[in-house]
Amino acid sequence: MFVENQILITLNNKSDNLTVIDFFCGAGGFSEGFRQMGFEIKYGYDYWKPAVDTFNHNFNLECEVKNILDFKTSIEEIDNLPNTDVIIGSPPCVSFSSSNKSGTADKSLGVDLTETFLRVVAVKKHQPNSTLKAWFMENVVNSKRYLQTTYTFKDLGLEEWAKKHKIGANNVAIDLYDNTTIINSADYGSIQSRKRVISGEIIKKKKLVIPKPTHQQKESQLSLPLYNSISLIKGNFPSPFEKKSTAKIKDIQYKIEIEKDKITDHFYDTGVYEIEWKFSKYWKTNHPFMGKMSFPENENKPSRTITATKIANSRESIIYKSEVKRKGDGEFRLPTVREAAIIMGFPITYQFIGGENNKWRLVGNAVCCSVSRAFAKIVLDELKIKHEDELQVATEPNLKGVLNLNNYSLKTFNNPPIKNKGSRFRRHPIKEGNLTVTLSNYDIEKGGKATGKWLTSIQYGTGKGFPIQHIEDGYYKTLESIISKYPSGKLFIKIINNGFSEKIGNATQLQEMYEVQKSNNTILEPTELVDEVKRIIDKIDIEEPQFIQNGTIVFESKKIIPTKQLFALYAINKISSTANSN
């Protein structure tokens, strides 16, 4: 049942413990792993108050909100920092993340913050009588593309400081090239597959020492325990829908147990609206150019990466089948904040300060505790400092001042989300033959805003930059003679023109229905129209699976395509043509 077979003891700080300061401390995941190995956390720096409040609450400190960029130009600010044995930091990953504005976001702030952190490390490492024994930095994998492989003192704005200490300004202050690696948190016992870049150095060794994995995926054939999966939580932790109780509940990752009613942020309904989970399902299983994902989550594997945003209608959403038997609204749910925190490796006694959205951000931005603990252990091992097997973990939660999300009640689904005015629409019924036939309300090739017209297009290939063929309204009439050659094609045309086409509103109606995410009694909103096309095609027994173009060229960039796509093109073009002509 337990991820780790280790004894837990009550937190204590000894005077001879190695000390740590944490930059961009967030909720404290990086620090928590070090604390579990007996390090003393001296201070945490962050510009976001909920993070500082959470850090103070769990580490019994009085840290203040601090902009890390204050250390960019002021040596005095750096000198005023406590001299510790270890410096850790996790610069904000949002500007580096490839999911942020599809990877096109400005990376300059991320670079600025990261280089400021490296500037602090450089001063503390190279100052006279330095006490620094190790430093570590965590970030998303994409950050490697935007950072230098080495930094001189001059690069870090420390030219005058280096001169004062008789160090060459062009000497290497920080080497990232030989001291950076990519790790997967699942390799260290996390219930999550989360790949991150770790840079750092054991000063004495003049290099980054990478901890050996403690777990393996099934295919690795190593003599290690297998990756921990979501099923560990589902099988050994209470459902969010259980009643309040004083029964003892064991932490599935640490040998502690607390009363059930002391478990915070878990016993509440995270069910999502049908229109939300249907969008998520579509983008996971039918994305135009990305691979297929499980819907709902595959509970026999580690969780996918916990993100900082609580969202239910995207490809990155983590969605479970609800334990409550409901159809439609509430049939699926998001993880609770507590489930997400367990996946990140936090003990069930760890608390997060703020409302639900803040708690999600705190958890999703954290460093996995199993990873930070592995690097804390490597520091002790490399410095040949003896340590006990016991982990320093809080055995009781501090609930003072904590806004508990628990309400022990079912959600009422009476306020469905709506889209913004003029929201863009894009959807295809089938992804097959390395192409899609798409209905949209904007030019996919050029981008931009919704046009007020509905468009039919064909996308060839499964990556960005693929060829796009635009189809004019009324083209479905040209396809009738081709499709009619199939016995099933005649039936298909009959269904589309007798029953289905009557469900198509005009262009304005489709846009309005899409924005409110709701069909009316006789007309379907565009999402439902495209889904209905897929259902019709799936029910028809198509005799010839491939359409070989001889004579009339329909698909300009392919000669042989799935016959289903020919049928899809007819139906999608019927939708756009009908909508635009009404």
UniProtKB/TrEMBL annotation:
<keyword id="KW-0489">Methyltransferase</keyword>
<dbReference type="GO" id="GO:0003886">
    <property type="term" value="F:DNA (cytosine-5-)-methyltransferase activity"/>
</dbReference>
<dbReference type="Pfam" id="PF00145">
    <property type="entry name" value="DNA_methylase"/>
</dbReference>
<dbReference type="InterPro" id="IPR018117">
    <property type="entry name" value="C5_DNA_meth_AS"/>
</dbReference>
<dbReference type="InterPro" id="IPR001525">
    <property type="entry name" value="C5_MeTfrase"/>
</dbReference>
<feature type="active site">
    <location>
        <position position="93"/>
    </location>
</feature>
<protein>
    <recommendedName>
        <fullName>DNA (cytosine-5-)-methyltransferase</fullName>
        <ecNumber>2.1.1.37</ecNumber>
    </recommendedName>
</protein>
<dbReference type="GO" id="GO:0044027">
    <property type="term" value="P:negative regulation of gene expression via chromosomal CpG island methylation"/>
</dbReference>
<dbReference type="GO" id="GO:0032259">
    <property type="term" value="P:methylation"/>
</dbReference>
<dbReference type="GO" id="GO:0003677">
    <property type="term" value="F:DNA binding"/>
</dbReference>
<dbReference type="InterPro" id="IPR050390">
    <property type="entry name" value="C5-Methyltransferase"/>
</dbReference>
<dbReference type="InterPro" id="IPR029063">
    <property type="entry name" value="SAM-dependent_MTases_sf"/>
</dbReference>
<comment type="similarity">
    <text>Belongs to the class I-like SAM-binding methyltransferase superfamily. C5-methyltransferase family.</text>
</comment>
<keyword id="KW-0808">Transferase</keyword>
<keyword id="KW-0949">S-adenosyl-L-methionine</keyword>
<dbReference type="GO" id="GO:0009307">
    <property type="term" value="P:DNA restriction-modification system"/>
</dbReference>
<keyword id="KW-0680">Restriction system</keyword>
